[in-house]
């Protein structure tokens, strides 16, 4: 209660401006509710892999992801993770927020991206309970050295600081898995090529028998990274693996 009153006072004394419309956001992040409602939501995505499902002339308004049927790929071959949470489409301006974070060091976007995840993560926590560990997708040390930071780890850290998620006491374990070998850039590769590149990309440092682990990343494309990492975690004893990411894009 004290924290909520303090944040309300701060919003009154020094209102945060929305980075899209420039008006006071009435929140602790630079994004107002009106602009957030205009962002490209991933409504009707596959309830397992969160891939956007195609619209048809007979169904221009898709069901929510909780009501939708699994996509054809997931029906043919269920991914090793239980559920991917990706509430937004990797389209403008969500893609700009993520690209500017990764390539222009716009770390000030982290609270906004965490806020975009908060509602869906809260729903997941209420349904499945608190995970034992949040696992940011590891980077190979060379890419980490060039970039200077792991955006997935910073996003996971921001989630633990989010006022609405703080009571859940989410715990990060960035050392659980490592990426011992560099993998080529996946951009421009098709789904099969991405899967081959990621097949043996990760190793784990310890057994995690009976644990619920959530993989955290910024964007999910083909799901090759999440699939490879989930298989390693399940092989080490995890009972459930989910994926939390900001945005989802489709790959043919």
TrEMBL record:
Which SUPFAM superfamilies does UniProt cross-reference here? Answer: PRTase-like (SSF53271)
Q: Which family does it belong to?
A: Belongs to the ComF/GntX family.
What is the name attached to this protein's record?
Answer: ComF family protein
Query: Whose protein is this, by species?
Result: Candidatus Litorirhabdus singularis
């Amino acid at each position: 209660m004290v924290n909520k009153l303090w944040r309300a006072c701060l919003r009154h004394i020094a209102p945060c401006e929305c980075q899209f419309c420039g008006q006071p956001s009435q929140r602790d992040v630079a994004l107002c509710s009106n602009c957030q409602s205009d962002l490209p939501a991933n409504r009707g995505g596959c309830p397992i892999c969160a891939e956007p499902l195609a619209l048809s002339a007979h169904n221009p308004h898709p069901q929510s992801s909780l009501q939708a049927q699994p996509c054809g790929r997931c029906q043919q071959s269920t991914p090793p993770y239980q559920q991917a949470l990706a509430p937004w489409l990797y389209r403008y301006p969500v893609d700009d927020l993520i690209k500017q974070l990764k390539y222009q060091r716009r770390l000030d976007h982290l609270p906004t991206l965490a806020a975009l995840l908060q509602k869906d993560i809260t729903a997941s926590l209420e349904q499945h309970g608190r995970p034992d560990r949040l696992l940011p997708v590891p980077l190979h040390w060379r890419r980490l050295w060039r970039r200077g930071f792991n955006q997935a780890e910073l996003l996971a850290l921001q989630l633990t600081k989010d006022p609405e998620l703080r009571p859940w006491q989410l715990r990060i374990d960035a050392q659980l898995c490592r990426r011992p070998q560099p993998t080529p850039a996946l951009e421009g590769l098709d789904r099969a090529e991405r899967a081959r590149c990621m097949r043996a990309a990760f190793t784990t440092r310890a057994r995690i028998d009976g644990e619920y682990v959530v993989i955290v990343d910024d964007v999910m494309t083909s799901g090759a990274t999440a699939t490879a990492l989930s298989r390693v975690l399940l092989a080490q004893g995890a009972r459930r693996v989910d994926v939390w990411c900001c945005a989802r894009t489709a790959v043919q």
